[in-house]
Write a structure and sequence with these properties.
The protein has 301 residues and is mostly helical. It contains 13 helices and no strands. Helix 2 packs across helix 13 and helix 4 packs parallel to helix 13. The chain is globular. The two termini are 43 Å apart.
Length: 301
């Protein structure tokens, strides 16, 4: 060590080098996954659209009569117009932002709940495990979309309520996966050593077990975003979304409500449908790529 340089500084520098090396190794592995790269490119494109929505949208979100009602696509309105003469291309751009925000927010919240429940159930065991797993079984026994419709109808159409409803009904599968991981980890030698040294249960759970289940949580988080996007689109299509925010599901709801589906105004229906499909597939591709990286047994030779 060079004179005059604190030992703690050199230690942090070494830790940074190790972290950068792991990130470089992660990127090298990820970049070799073709589907993972396709998903990442699609996600970056939609993220860029969502961030720059106010600058790239030709018209405002609530700007009416910029064209004729149900006007087909043209050089002035790339995706045509809706029944109020609003530019559908602009609505698609603004809908990208809302669909992404709801999908990511609901997935983050559900992953947090599922991870916490899974760690508690797996580590504590006994009565705690039995009660939590019975709750999980009960929620998994009923189709989640049915419960989402009921809770969304009770709470009312709101941006925040949609996120909460999707999150509180999407965590059971994550909890089950995390619990299984914790059950195998808690029998490890280093966990027994921590117990012998007098470590508290909370310290063991969050200091020793949590870091080992983070890869599982990340992979499930990414895959759960796609489920949340579909759930939001489904609820909004049924009229349970927030009418004050334009999402792709709300566009489809307005298309159905205005009769565009029955008449066959495809330009009102196809773009948001393809947007949902593309964004969901992007997260699915990224999720499976992460699964291959975090679980070497899944890697293709």
């Amino acid at each position: 060590m060079k004179p005059g340089i604190p030992r703690g500084y050199m230690q942090r520098l070494d830790d940074l080098r190790v972290l950068l090396g792991r990130l470089r190794e992660f990127w090298d592995t990820y970049s070799r996954n073709r589907y993972g790269m396709i998903g990442l490119i699609i996600l970056l494109l939609f993220t860029l659209i969502a961030i720059l929505a106010d600058y790239i949208a030709p018209y405002g979100e609530w700007e009416l009569s910029v064209g004729k009602p149900f006007e087909p696509p043209s050089q002035y309105h790339l995706f045509g117009c809706d029944e109020l003469g609003r530019d559908l291309f602009s609505l698609f751009i603004y809908g990208t932002r809302i669909s992404l925000i709801i999908g990511v927010s609901a997935a983050l919240l559900s992953t947090l709940i599922g991870g916490l429940v899974g760690i508690l159930a797996g580590f504590l065991g006994g009565t705690t495990d039995a009660i939590l797993m019975r709750v999980v079984d009960a929620l998994l026994a009923i189709p989640s979309i049915v419960l989402m419709i009921i809770f969304a109808a009770i709470l009312g159409p709101s941006f925040t309520n949609i996120i909460i409803v999707i999150a509180i009904l999407s965590w059971p599968p994550i909890a089950r996966v995390v619990r299984a991981q914790v059950l195998s980890i808690k029998e490890a030698t280093y966990i027994e050593a921590a117990r012998a040294l007098g470590a508290s249960p909370s310290r063991i759970m969050f200091k020793h077990i949590l870091p080992n289940v983070v890869p599982v949580l990340i992979a499930n988080l990414v895959l759960n975003v796609s489920n949340a996007i579909i759930a939001e689109a489904s609820l909004s299509f049924l009229g349970l979304g927030d009418p004050h925010h334009t999402s792709w599901g709300m566009i489809l709801h307005y298309a159905y409500k205005s009769g565009a589906v029955a008449v066959g105004y495809w330009w009102y229906i196809v773009p948001p449908g393809l947007g949902i499909l593309a964004l969901v597939m992007a997260f699915v591709f990224i999720g499976y790529a992460l699964n291959e990286i975090l679980n070497p047994r899944l890697r293709t030779i």
